[in-house]
Amino acid sequence: MATVPFERLEIYRLAERLSDEIWGVVLPWDSFAKETVGRQLVRAVDSIGANIAEGSGRGSFQDNRRFVRIARGSLNETKHWLRRAFTRGLLTKSQIASLKPLLDELAPRLNAYLNSITRNITKEQPTANKQPITNNQ
Fold it and tell me: Can you tell me the mean pLDDT for 90-95?
């Protein structure tokens, strides 16, 4: 499996940007907010990039696809915690407005990356008609 190093993947860089933005938002919160919603939010958003990185290093398209699906789940969890934070008055409308473009871009990009991995799996699998020749045939 020939791959691009994860640090050079646009999808990974986008996940890093979102993670860094959210870190900056959570940092000034009071200790209760940080220890409850903030901790969960940061873990979820950091997990997006971590799973992209881990999947790309696994050595097979199938493993990579599995980790990208986990990253997609972490993106949904991130959205959940952002909703909770906004509802609880921890995020301003302007903070949401600055995060929204990153969130809106990351979801379809994750899906596109997942589709590209799936296409590679299809290319990698042998066709059903090709049987190995053995001495017994």
Answer: 96
